[in-house]
Amino acid sequence: ISNLGKIVADTAPQLDEKLGPKYGDVARTAARSMQETAARIESKDITELGNDAKEFVRKSPGLAVGIAAVAGFFVARLFKGSGSQE
User: Does residue 86 carry a pLDDT above 80?
Assistant: First the structure.
């Protein structure tokens, strides 16, 4: 997540030039959020992460199922794409 945040932050000046400062600011805000999230995740141990995940599923079961479905779709696309390059 941290690396993705850095990539988004590095792209922000290009967005400023091509689309305007409003879009660059959105990218910078998203990058900052990703980097802060990565820092929070890295500061926790596996037990805390598991407990946080359980609590999230209890509070928002529909959203959890939706996220799992999207993640599953991307994983399936990843494996489908890597298998077709033979």
Answer: no
